[in-house]
Structures are given as structure tokens and as C-alpha cells.
Amino acid sequence: MDSTEHDDTLFKTLFKESFQETWKDSPDFALYLTELSASSVEKLSREPERLAEEKAQILEQTEHLAFHNYKTFIKTAECSKEIFHDFVSVEKHVESVLDKLPTFSETCSNFMKAAQEINTSRHLNSLTLARHTQLLEILEISQLMDSCVRNGYYEEALELSSYVHRLEKKLSNIPIIQNIVDVVQSSNKLMLSQLLQQLRSAIQLPACLRVIGYLRRLDLFSESELRIKFLQARDAWLQSVLASIPSEDPYYHITKTIETSRVHLFDIVTQYRAIFSDDDPILSMENEDSPIYSNLFHCWIVQKVQQFLKTLENGLERGVGNRLDSLLGQCMYFGLSFSRVGADFRGLLPPLFHTAALQSFSTAVHNATSRFNEAMKSYSLQSVPSTVTSTILSTMTTKPEELYPPVELLQYPPLATFTNSILSAFNGLRHCAPLALVSAVTESVQSALKAIIQTTCTFHRAEAAALNETERATFAQFCQVLGRQLIPYMKRCLEAMFPSSVLSDMYGSSSVVADTTLDVNSLQLLLEPVMPQETVQESEQKPHHDDEAETKQKNEQTNVVLSDKSLPKDVKDESQEEINEKIPDTEQQNLDLT
């Protein structure tokens, strides 16, 4: 590195401003510089002259060469010019080629791609031709699936659906396969609708098993959802059957509802338990991983029972006449049938029939009271010839234990009409007279008797000033028959309807039984203000107590009517006809007013 710096310094010293950088790398310059360095002073002093002579000599040679070879130089110049023009032309062509090369390259690439596509298409066409049969079968799957579903060939339709599902997993990227999948899914929806529609019809157990099997294979619902769908579909069919029952006649509507509900609900329960056998809690306990769906079925059963009871209640409110006993027997048999599936609802029936029986009886008693009031508005006190009463008494033969109405009532049409109406109410109640109604029935009769007594008192106040002696005597007899004949007779009818021995067994206390009997004394006291004084004094001389021995004898001879305690545990043990045979036929006890 020191040698290089020394040379640079030397060059700058010798050639101050005329030194060219290119001389450094010239070997001739280095050689000449070496010769100069080795020359003596004398030689160095003659060197400029020598160089001048050599320069002149070279110039002379150059001029001589140019003079003798000027044609060659001219040709060389012309050739150079032509070569220059050729190079310019070549450059232009090269630039043109360079401009067109990308387009050419792109065209070649497109050609290669088109060729590859043609080759691929040709290969696919060849492969398609070779697999034509298999492809045709796949393309016809959607049409075949639709035909199977519409014709009810669900087994074949499910197999096709399973095959298409496998195709979708493997070839879902192929548009035609995706199109086939969409069509098959649409057919599956149609099949689902048809299967659910079958469950909404009168279908038997084998068909139910097949339908649920198809629904399970569709794999559209979970196990709980499948149960809900089954119950919804069967319930829709049941509701349609119940809705088709004519509702004009309440009795017919209730009886058909009972029969339809009993038969079809039991069939649905049987179908459900046969199809969903794992719903049994005992079987479910063996497998801890198996969920228990019994709550779902239990809620549905409870809902159906409540719906039936509501329908029954509405029908009873509309009125069924004197046929409550028949409905009670049918409902009890319905409840007994459901006890075999763990849904015995017989304990819910008494309140409904209690209310219906009491409502019917109360309405009849109210109508009887209204008719009595209307009759009293137009009633005139006229004495009935004693021969009429004697003739009637001679033609009627009564037994001590029979509850025939007092014949004296025939002399007074308002009392006779009222008695007939009350007896009709008793006849309607006797076939279905629960002991729990004894207080309500007694109170209703007591209120009715109070009402007719008040009407009688009102009649007396309005007509007392215009009555003659004969009419006063007739009115006194009217009050006497009302207080001493009709009221005790009503009490005997109530005791026959609700025997004191049965009431004692139910309540366990005679004092409680006494509270449920008709208060004859209080009713008779209400009549005293309108009765003549001598009649009242005559009445006070007589003992105001019932003949207990006679009442007991009548109760023993009168069989027990249907009550809460006599409701059969098993409806088959005793038919309603056998119960009715034990009840005295009071329907023949109405007074003959003709």
C-alpha cells in the first residue's frame, strides 16, 4: 500500500495537470515510466527531442498511409454508416419483438389452457360415456324419490334418502349432486307431512309402529320431540272426532263424548306405551343413561282428563233432565277403564254431579214456587164438596209405608200443583242423590215452603177484608192443610230420600242429622198470623213432635238411594238398574188433578 501511495505522489509531481487516470492501468505507461526511471540524466535531457522526432515521424507515416489508403477509409466509413443503419433497424425490430412477446406469451398460455380444457373435457366425455348407466340412475333419484313418496313406498324412499345423504358427504361440491340433494330433502318434507297426517287419522297400532319407525329413520326429531309430535297428531285426530259430535242435545253430546273419549283415549295410551316402551319408569331405572319421558305423557293425560271434565261440566250445566244416573254410571266406567293405565279420575266426578243435581233440583223447586205464586194471584177460595174428597179417599188404597201425597191437597189446586212440582223434582233427584246434598236440598225445600207461606200471608193480607165466612173457613182449611199436611209430607219425602240411619252412619252424630232435617215447627209458626185463633189453639193442644217410631219404620222399609258412600268402587259390581230397583217408585205418587 505504501508503494501505491508513492507512485501516486510521483505521478502528481511529474504530471501536474496533464495526468490522466487511465494511464495508471496502462502497461505501456508503466513500462515507459520504468525506462525513464532507469535512464541517465543525459538520456533524459535528450528524451524530449527524441520524442519530438518520433512524433514527427509517426505523423509523416500517418499522412503517407492516409494518402495511399484514402479509398479504403472511405469504404470503411460507408460500411460503418451502413452498419449503423442496420443496427438501428435491428434495434427497432428487436423492440417490436419485445413489445409483442408478452402478448404472444399470453396467447400461448391461453392456447395451452384451452388445449388442456379440451383434453379434460374429452376425458370427461369418455368417462361419462363409460359410466352412462350409473349416472342415469343417479340423475333419476329425485324423480324416483318423489314417486315413492307420493305412492306411499316409504321404505324405498328412506333407502334412497340414505343413499343421497352418503353422496352428499362425498360429492357435495358437485352442483348436480347438490341439486339432487335439495330435491330429495323437499321429498323428505312431503313424506314427513304424509306420515304426520296418517297419525292424525283413525290409525291402528301396527300402522302407528310403522309410521314412528319411518319418522325415527328420517332423523328429524329428537326422542322427546318425536313423543310430542305423536301426542299432538293423535290429539288433533281425537279433537276432530269430538268436534264432529252433535251438540244440540246435551245428554247425547255427553254420552257420545264419554264413549268416544274412553275408546279412543285408551287406544292412544295403548299405542303410546307400545311404541315408546322406554317410557315405563321401571324399565328406565334399569338403564341410568336412559331419560324418563313419563312426565310428558303424564301431563298429556292430565290435560285430556281436565278437558273431558270441562266438557262434562259444560254439558251438565246445560241440563240433562233426569238422566244424571246414566251419565254417572258411564263416567264411572270411563274412570274405571283409565285406572288400568294409572289415570283413575273417578274421585273428580262427585263434585260435578253434586253441582248438576243440586242445580237441577233447585231450578225445579224455584219453578214450583213461581207456579204457586202465579196460581195464588188468580185463586179464589171456593169450598170443594166433601163428596169429592170422600170419593177419592174410597178409590185410593194406600199402604202405611208408601209415600202417597195427602189427598186433602186436591181441594186446593195451588197446593196440589206445588206438591206435584216438588215430587217431580224429587223424582229427578232420587236416581242421583248424594248424601252430601242433604243440607242443600233440605235448605232449598225449606226456602220454597217459606216462600209459599209468605205468598199465602200476602194473599191473606190482600183478600182478608173481602172474605166472607165461608171463604174464611176455606182459607183456614187451606192453611191447615199447608201446615199440617203438606209440610210434614215434605219432611217424610226428605227422610225417604236421605234416611236418618244412613246419615247417622255418615256423620256419626244424631245432632248433626237433626240439623239436616226440615224444620217443621218454624214453618208452622210462620202460618199462625193468618190462621184463625181457634185453629191455632186446637193445634197447640196437639203434640208438636214427629212420631219417631213411625219414621224409623218408614226408613227401614225405604231402601237407600245413591249417595257418596254407596258409589261403587267397581262399576261392574252393581249396575244402575239394580240400584234403581231398590228405590221406591215415587213417580206414581203425583196427585191426579184431572
UniProtKB/TrEMBL annotation:
<dbReference type="GO" id="GO:0015031">
    <property type="term" value="P:protein transport"/>
</dbReference>
<comment type="subunit">
    <text>Component of the conserved oligomeric Golgi complex which is composed of eight different subunits and is required for normal Golgi morphology and localization.</text>
</comment>
<comment type="similarity">
    <text>Belongs to the COG8 family.</text>
</comment>
<keyword id="KW-0653">Protein transport</keyword>
<dbReference type="GO" id="GO:0006891">
    <property type="term" value="P:intra-Golgi vesicle-mediated transport"/>
</dbReference>
<dbReference type="InterPro" id="IPR007255">
    <property type="entry name" value="COG8"/>
</dbReference>
<feature type="compositionally biased region" description="Basic and acidic residues">
    <location>
        <begin position="566"/>
        <end position="585"/>
    </location>
</feature>
<keyword id="KW-0333">Golgi apparatus</keyword>
<feature type="compositionally biased region" description="Basic and acidic residues">
    <location>
        <begin position="539"/>
        <end position="555"/>
    </location>
</feature>
<dbReference type="InterPro" id="IPR016159">
    <property type="entry name" value="Cullin_repeat-like_dom_sf"/>
</dbReference>
<feature type="region of interest" description="Disordered">
    <location>
        <begin position="533"/>
        <end position="594"/>
    </location>
</feature>
<dbReference type="GO" id="GO:0017119">
    <property type="term" value="C:Golgi transport complex"/>
</dbReference>
<dbReference type="InterPro" id="IPR016632">
    <property type="entry name" value="COG8_Metazoal_Plant"/>
</dbReference>
<keyword id="KW-0813">Transport</keyword>
<keyword id="KW-0472">Membrane</keyword>
<dbReference type="GO" id="GO:0000139">
    <property type="term" value="C:Golgi membrane"/>
</dbReference>
<dbReference type="Pfam" id="PF04124">
    <property type="entry name" value="Dor1"/>
</dbReference>
<protein>
    <recommendedName>
        <fullName>Conserved oligomeric Golgi complex subunit 8</fullName>
    </recommendedName>
</protein>
